[in-house]
Design a protein that fits this description.
CBS-domain, alpha/beta
């Protein structure tokens, strides 16, 4: 059975989509698009953009869910729909009210135009202590961190330097490759 190492599974930071602090969401999208075009097409596509400070240190990450959250309207009416659930109204009913309210709002194209100008710092999530893994740590340690924190990726470090990203999709592929190898061994034994 092949022994997987974090350094072999990670995406080096030089191959990952990055933007500088102060960039807009649209600029982040362009960086993501460029990184996906240049990345090995046999591997899974990137799903986030790293935000770097002027010293090229990672400040945070903007993921797909962060972008979708930015599109959500933020007003008192929307908060009221969430509060209604406390009184026993069904999710279907509250979603229906929310949908009616959204239909009266701005068209999605206008919301997208405004959101594209949002600074990435407003949307990014800063990495937590549990989102860092040492390049020499075991894959089992990384799996535990991914599961425990429900993370989509971990920042791979050596001392305090970030070397790359260990993505859930790459770990998942390695685990299934290992299962497949084990399955072949099991078939030989029977």
């Amino acid at each position: 059975m092949e022994k997987y190492l974090i350094k072999d599974l990670m995406v080096p930071i030089s191959e990952y989509a990055t933007v500088s602090e102060g960039a807009t969401l649209f600029e982040a999208y362009l960086a993501l698009e460029k990184a996906q075009e240049e990345y090995d097409h046999n591997k899974y596509r990137h799903r986030a953009v790293l935000v770097l400070d002027k010293n090229r240190r990672v400040l945070g990450k903007v993921g797909q869910l962060d972008v979708l959250r930015a599109l959500e309207p933020k007003n008192e009416q929307i908060d009221l729909f969430e509060d209604i659930r406390k009184y026993g109204f069904s999710d279907q009913f509250t979603m229906s009210l929310r949908e009616q309210h959204l239909m009266q709002g701005e068209p999605l194209t206008e919301i997208c135009k405004k959101t594209a100008q949002t600074k990435v710092e407003e949307l990014m999530s800063a990495p937590t202590e549990g989102e860092y893994v040492d390049v020499d740590a075991s894959l089992e340690t990384a799996i535990h961190q991914l599961v425990r924190g429900s993370h989509m990726s971990l920042l791979v470090t050596r001392k305090k330097e970030i070397l790359g990203i260990l993505r859930l999709t790459d770990v998942f592929a390695a685990i299934f490759h290992t299962m497949k190898e084990c399955g072949i061994d099991i078939e030989k034994d029977t």
